[in-house]
Amino acid sequence: MDNLLFGDNQFFGVNHMSEEKARAQSIRFQNIEAVYEVLDSAYDEGIRTFMCTTHDRVEEICNHTRANRDRYRDFLFYPCMPYAHKYANAATEDGILSAITRFMPGGIINAAIRGGTSLATKDIDGIVTLLIDSEMKMFHGLKTPVIFLQNVVTDLLLGLGMKKAFRIFADHIRTRYGAEPGFITMNMPMLLDVLEDVGVENPIVCANINKIGFRMCGGIDAYEQALRDRKFRAIAMSVFASGAIPPKEAISWVCSQPNIHSIVFGASSRSNIHSTKQIVDSLWSQRQVQPASHNAGAV
Amino acid sequence: MIRIAVVGLGKMGLSHLSMIRVHPDVQLVGVCDTSKYMLDALGKNTGIPTFTDYETLLQKATPEAVIIATPSRFHGDLVRTSIEHGLHVFCEKPFCLNWSESMSLASLADRKGLVNQVGYHYRFVGAFQEVKRLLEAGAIGTVTHVLAEAYGPVVLRPKGMSWRSKKEEGGGCLYDYAAHPVNLVNWFFGLPDSVGGSVMTSIFSKDTDDEVCGTIRYADGPSVQLSVNWSDESYRKMSTKITLWGTAGRIYADRQECQVFLRDTAQVPRGYTKGWNTRYTTDLTEPVWFYVRGEEYSAQLDYFVRGIASGKKANVNSFASAAETDHVLAMILDDAQSSAALAVPVNHRGKSALFGR
Q1: What's the number of domains chain B is made of?
Q2: Closest CA to A90 of B182, B10, B94
Q3: What are the tens digits of pLDDT across the range B50-102?
Q4: Does residue B325 belong to any structural domain of this protein?
Q5: ipTM summary value
Q6: How far is B282 from chain A (nearest CA, A)?
Q7: Contact B71, B79 (CB under 8 A)
Q8: Which residues of A touch B47 (CB under 8 A)?
Q9: Distance from first CA to last CA of chain B, Å, rounded?
Q10: Which are the contacts of B249, defined by CB distance < 8 A and separation ≥ 6?
Q11: pTM of the predicted model, to two decimals?
Q12: Residue B16 C-alpha, separation from nearest chain A C-alpha, in angstroms
């Protein structure tokens, strides 16, 4: 994994600080060319990994990348699925099971043939893999070396205790896509226990890791301890805590933590991308990566 | 450990279940739903005891407390049964479709000394809690007007199969969406004296409303304008917001932030200055033990658990407070229906404008 990954929140009106800012970003990035321009800036700064949700508009970005293979030769996608609001809004409108079948590949007929069996056998295995395949379609022909389970789903399954789903996800991502499974969570210490329990070894886990402990459930001490003692590969997100921590201070703190393999960040301008890249490059050598976890399956 | 059961495994029930199951002071003793598929999927993969019948759950799982997240029309009976069995109850919003039933359940629960709470989670959002603190401190003087809004993308086409699209089951924009800003207004100002100019419009739904607007009046308080629409695709997810104008300033709040303008005449609270002030969710949000989709959902359940553990009587989201909201929703519904009956049909009005002169 590269030390810096580019996120997509800014493109889709996700801003944890302000609804006004979120709307301004939605308006600005309505034109997909504006998205390409920012992605190009990141790419030209040497940030080659785009960690993105399976939002409908990401499909346009995928098409653009496929159509310009020479320009984006080293471009990697880290898909994060599912785009939860798509399901949540559908569940409010149609109920949970109808919402799930709505997003099954090939529409209702295919879902009845493949998913019908799943529903009848009460086995979540079939449903999970069907939904993964449906979400992955847009990335056809692109490089997706790490595929993530989005935090709302990870944390819902974690809370419910549906541990087996993590293993199904991990196995399917490995066998079907030849990729590494990743998990996004707001409850990192608890998730690490469960992943170990179901035999997902040395997992890639993306979590809020920031100096003020914002959305780090279990507490900042438990996070620090996990980073020190557990065998996993951490990706830090929300390192600026939605702008609450100044960039240099934020990155400096993250780089001082052990076992951070990557930082994912979002930005809307070339100057922001450039300055974040510069700060990370200058501080990255300070960070400590556990040799044991680093050697076991670096991506 | 407090023995808790969850009834109703829809969107809200699953979300509550995931948080309460891992609460450090809670033992989850059973779940109940009519969907065998959902129960089997859960039971088989988690080992949680499952029941299709609530009475059976009560007998076999012997919970001390219950979280009820069924479609709204079942709330009343389930809550009554639970209270009669001596259970502390957390019920999803809206509380009851008939507000006099809400009142009677509120007094029943209080008489029995049981913790009773309704899931109006916005009262646990840091920014709205800040509004409450500012109002209690008199920061913006006398509040004269309020704009209470909620928008989101739920019904975007003429379709929909869940109970939320059925009026008789407590579906519709009024009960699902408008209940939230109305509940915040109740929290800040109590029960209003009257409502007027209520309009409930169907945009896409056949059987129910997609848009609600109207005025809520306090004889000795502000006028409140309500504007709610759950067919608004310009929002990524539900957004509830409140704007308050006072003699000494103005407050705007949504889930993310609280913006406050204080005039020279304002009594400035500690940490604030005259002019513009902004408090963000990062400043206002307390950490929670587990996060699924917002600290407020976790915080309200923790509050319920702590209420049981401590035997504390004060309750920010009691049945009685939710009954106020049910009452206002009923007032809006009545007002909208009687206004609609008096209104001149749109077609007729159109004709007279074109041809009647």
Answers
A1: 2
A2: B10
A3: 999 999 999 999 999 999 999 999 999 999 999 999 999 999 999 999 999 99
A4: no
A5: 0.91
A6: 7
A7: no
A8: 161
A9: 76
A10: B139, B140, B141, B260, B261, B262, B263, B266
A11: 0.91
A12: 9
